[in-house]
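step 4 of 6: structure.
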Amino acid sequence: MADFQAVADQFVQFYYQTFDENRQNLATLYRDNSMLTFENTPIQGAAGIVEKLSSLPFQKVLHKWSTADAQPSSEGGGILVMVTGALLVDEEQKPMSYTQTFQLLPDGQGSYYVFNDIFRLVYPAA
Amino acid sequence: MSQRRNAGSRNKGPARGGISKRRTGPVRLDRDGDLDMDVAGGKSGAGRGRGAEKTGNAGRDVLKSAPQRGPLSGAGLQKAILRGMATGDAKVRGPREVGVDGVLKEMTGGKARGRDKQDHRLDQVSVRGLKQSKAASNPDGGLKDLLAFLERKATGPDTPAREAVRIRKSRTEGEAVIVSVRPEDVPKLLRISSYTFAGVPLTIEKYNGPETSGTGAAAPTESPQVVDIKQKMTSVLSRRYDPALKLLNLSALGHDEELVSMGLFQSVSTESKFFPALMKVCDTFFSSAQQKREAVHSVSLANNELPNVMSVTTLSQTFPDIQNLDLSHNKFKDLRAMENWRRRFPFLDHLVLTDNPLETQEPNYKESILKWYPTLRILNGQQVRSDEEVAAIAQKRANAVRGVLPLPVQAADFRDEAQIGENFIKQFFLGFDTDRAALANGYYDAKSQFSLSVNTSAPRAPQQGQDIKSQTWDAYIKKSRNLSKISHLPARMARVYTGPESILSCWTSLPATRHANITAEPLKWLVECHSLPGLPDPSGQSPGGVGGLIVMVHGEFDELNVATGQTIMTRSFDRTFVLGPGAGIGGIRVISDVLVLRAYGGNTAWLPEGTAPAQTTSDGQAQPSALTPTAPQIPENFAVAVPGKSEEQLQQELMLAEMSKRTNMTLEYSRMCLEQTGWNFDSALAAYESAKEMLPPNAFMQGI
């Protein structure tokens, strides 16, 4: 089994880099049974999730994640990843703290997809 | 991920460069460049008379969505432009052979976009007094010494090196030195205003753009060429701005004699810098995004032979809120040509793309355009989305951006099953505070895992009764399993605790805690809960796994001194549990438990609307919400400039306020401290640090 921590590590880096560069490209990380909970809005399915992420009311975004931790979680080799960090949007200079919990599942082809994605702002602005 | 980049590199090559005189081809343009909003058939007539007709017809679209709103009318803008013009040279000069490229570079600060990114997180502060100081006679005018002085004083003693104030950039502007620092360093610099540098007290203020003394001309440090080009561009812009329609007409720029005479289209290099420079000049007319929004509703870039929007992409930064955009009569082959503006212009109402090759080469482009511009109502003069639909989107957005946050803050999403999650949370944190052994044995089994990490860089909310500087993590940091910091596999594995014994041994080594009572103080908590299928089944009966819950908890706890029961400090935490059916209390077991600790961040992020919104004052300082301890009584007009108050008194009050804020001492004690050190803030702070243990309780403001 691949080292779940290395998977989590790579995933987090890839996820935020993609998010900040062009969040439409996150589509490849979700499947139709994926579930995003953005603040209190639940959305299921890759298409809807990417639509939601793309339509967030900002143009530029920068994630600065501070911590990431992971544990193996489910029967099929799932990985629970919890990230905390700060994000900057557009010209806003005050970072907002967030936490994001992912549940990654293997896609059967040697890779992983996001099954759960739970995003939450925990501190509005410093 | 690199689609956009690819699109960019595809666009290099011969067809690069945007607005061009050299590749004229057959002239088929509207020299007056009226924003041809009804150009469904692509007719491109010309002439003022027709323009007037259009104002009555399609112009209605422009006007309908362009009500006179704010105080800055179009006429105001024009006046501003004319003011700039008054100092300019209206005559058309011969072509500039040398230096245009360099001048444009100077104007746009080299690479326009690169600079934007870099400056994104820097704030500017103006410092006055250098010219009068003794250091002014130094070879470099004293600048180096001044910067070193500012960094040293603003940083203060006892500051870790990585938190030291660093001046990233500096420049002079008239009497002032403008320095760029990280936003968090701005207050530190403002605090040392009136400090004496080389015999002269410095005046340090937030920088609010160049001074517009009289002429409104460029700052004195700019080279004459820059001033000259700026004035000419101002002249071009004023000629091309229609205040009645709020239209900035940038069509057929390659045929604008004034621009051509400036030598702007002589090389690829100047061409590529021209538009960013023009936008930069536009920016100088406005002091706020609001003004821009009100002055310019429509932009035409028709007839510019643009192969794509690369060369004009800065339009979306300077005028992000325009409602009408005319891109007709360009050379867009396909939608990739507009890739850079995908999902830009969030308020776009009317877009014209007629007479571009993409009409025939990519006939289905309209679908994508509709997706890219969710408020687009009219495409090429035809209604493509109903007014109601657009209004609904606008409403949704207005709700979303309500308040000060770019993102809405929402209540919890709690999808519990049979109160399992709720009961677990109530019992868990009580158990964690009182009997961790019972908790570990009650909910955790041999396969349960626990790990914790410390987010040392999370922002700290204003909070009384606790000293900002003593934010130490000694008790936790060795166990912190932050994968971004711990990369060695054995080290990572050593920081996961599996099974009740191992987990308990970790918990036992952590400081004693007291979590807020979730029933009594629900606002201090945010708990979310979702069902989660496919969890391991300890009984082995369901090979596909069993259903469980994923629970996210955000909250705060007091760290206690076990001997005295006193609170040492309050911290915030985020914790994720995965719960599944098992042999533990209530038939459940904890499968995963991931804990993140961070500095106290308060609960303003998830307070429901209307309870106590996070307040932000004009200087960006977060204000304590109604739920954080009440602020002490501060005399009216304290630390505020009012008539009759001397500058010295004001400075002292500012220092007192800052001292009190940093130390939590009362104003009275803050004054004693500052007076004893001759109103030297740093010395006073150092004195406080060394004496704080001996101070009586009434020296401090009463917290919590």
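step 5 of 6: annotate
 - Chain A has one domain: 3-122.
 - Chain A is about 20% helix and 45% strand.
step 6 of 6: archive
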